[in-house]
Amino acid sequence: MPADTHRPTPRTHTLGSDTRRPHGTSPLLRAPRASRASRLRLRIALTALVALASATLTALPSEAAGTASSPPSAPSAPSASSASSALGGTVEPRVAGRLTGTLSDGATWIADVPEDWNGTLLLFSHGFGPTVARNAPTDAVRTELLARGYAMAGSSYDPNGSMWALESAERDQFATLDAVAARIGTPRRTLALGQSMGGLVNAQLARDGGGRIDGALGQCGLVAGGTDLDNYQLDAEYTVARLLLPGQDVPLVRFGTAAEASATADLLTRAVNAAQSTPQGRARIALAAAFLNLPAWAPGQDRPAPADRDGQQKQQYAWFAQGILSFVEGGRYAVEQSVGGNNSWNKGVDYADLLAASPHAPQVRALYRTAGLDLRADLRTLTEGATITADPAAVRTALRTSSAGQGLEVPLLDIHTTADNLVPVEQENRFAARVRAAGDGALLRQAYVERQGHCTFTTAETVAALHALEHRVSTGRWDDAATAGALQRSATALGLDGAAYVPYTPARLSVGRPLHTP
Questions:
Q1: DSSP per-residue codes, 35-51
Q2: How far apart are CA 109 and CA 107, in angstroms?
Q3: How many CA within 13 A on the CB side of residue 409?
Q4: pLDDT tens digits, residue range 384-425?
Q5: pTM
Q6: Cβ count near 495 (within 10 Å)
Q7: In sequence order, which residues have a C-beta less than 8 Å from that of residue 104 and are 6 or more positions away?
Q8: How many other C-beta atoms are found inside a 10 Å radius of the C-beta of residue 429?
């Protein structure tokens, strides 16, 4: 489960629920999508309806009164972005500085508003971790964007439940927009920004936020959703348990406590560490890494050559040695808490077919040959022993709360590092296929940064991506603004901390389940 490694709305949306469909109805269960003109007419009608309800229900206590302090300090920089000029210059907010408040479910929100506000409000969705309000991916990004005139806001999500707070995140983010607008005035433009698990929230905002947000920028987003995540992670955990701890009964799902999840993580990590000392163990670690969609390029190391199978395995092992299974198991416990049970399964999975579709298959086959192991026998062992079933209610809850890609209402630009250990870049492939199937491929652009690690973007890369999104929102066209070349030139011209945008096409996500969960 990815963590927030940097720690770490609709404007008429008064009540914080999705006015386009009944609460709790999965987007996958909706009627066929209407035309854009029909959807626009529907949104206008719903906007009028909600405005009428807002005028009648004036006593709803959606948030506590906020507080203001002096504006945060920032280094000298341009006072507004190029996009803000197109909007007509700066805006004088009703209140500037640091604002805070509390929503009806106990979620807190924060906002930073510069005196020379350019009229754009950025709504930030934070990643997996403590439910504490954040409004920027990094302090450096916040400082830079405030200096450029942007206002920034974000909520904690509901602090009373799981850190996998997808049950409340979208609702709390839209409610935060209402609370902030009530303090500073209506933004000329609202853009969503999300990172890691917050990238999934961000994709949901882009799906449901027509008329409330104008565009969205996702960073290293967990856009394949919670069930795909738990399924491919289960394949890797199961491979380690079955092949490196044969005969042991290792709990992999339905954790009753965080301590149980931690104990499984420790057991599996010790097994991997011990196995690394033999060719046979290294081959089986590579098989588990393939199912985990784990990159073969670790931090602080040069990328292995395409034919350097031993070097690739060594760098995949480095991710295991750094404790990735602790994130996996801790995250699984949090997801199970949130969705009410186990939403992953491997019964019916053919592990030979799963490996055959993996881009890491040539590496695994080469290491098995070197080790003198029978790969087909191991894959048969995995397939025959795959008996884990999901809890149907948990799968349905995860589909409703923890999925995205069933359509877009506003432009979305996703950026991802090419060697992401916690949210594999291949998730972007899975997500794009869903968006295209929904008929909204023209609204989506994806770009890639050649770097190891999760959410390891420079400030320049973030600002350049934001400007590309603003171009799309302002002109109604992407043109070439979101291409690797244009983004690299834009980021480099900022003179900040460098950039590494590259042309890249991610492989398919190795998950071995239907594109849409049952």
A1: PHHHHHHHHHHHHHHHH
A2: 7
A3: 27
A4: 999 999 999 999 999 999 999 999 999 999 999 999 999 999
A5: 0.84
A6: 8
A7: 16, 61, 62, 63, 175
A8: 17
